[in-house]
């Protein structure tokens, strides 16, 4: 009888240990491997990007740049130079005086007028100081679509910019060079099992819950959960006494 009761208590203890409400669930790492086809970019023959720029607050055509993926190293070539007219030079000089930005943009998918613009800006002072020599980097994804444009014009400090703003721009002809950078494989995400961590609120502070979140279930101890089973078992063990005397045994002497 005692052995059976002890087995029942052991089973209850095992049930409490395996209770899913007593343990935090471990999430699986379900990251899928995505293979980037880097050679897809290099296999394309190339395309032309129609650039636009903003000098007076309104975007207007600036010219095109030819992106070539056929060679060993992708290239960006500007077939013509951009020369600002008198009105544009005056507007550009105002941007320099106001420490403003010169902005260019191009469609992310050449030939698709509904594709989003890719925008890049640079302080106008930087270009004026460099005598309009600009170096642009065009970043493309694994299928050759434009994802970003980067100005690589040398930095100019604020004191020098104030001196540049005093100059009169008699000529503004852009001497543009460019580079193309394709997508590259980045480091792999570590495959580490992630465990949800519950942080208790400080004493006296009520935890923040969402508007429709139900009341959190009160954490109960093992005894509070299974008292209605444990107490009867303990009473049975206590009242059971010792083993009954064997049949035929002599009674104890007084």
TrEMBL record:
Alphabetical keyword list: Endoplasmic reticulum, Membrane, Signal, Transmembrane, Transmembrane helix
One GO CC annotation: endoplasmic reticulum membrane
Entry annotated with the keyword Transit peptide: no
Organism domain of life: Eukaryota
Entry-linked CDD domains: EMC10 (cd22209)
Pfam families named in the record: ECM10
Membrane topology (UniProt): Single-pass type I membrane protein
Extent of the signal sequence: 1-18
Protein location: Endoplasmic reticulum membrane
Assigned protein family: Belongs to the EMC10 family.
Protein name in the entry: ER membrane protein complex subunit 10
Organism: Achlya hypogyna (Oomycete)
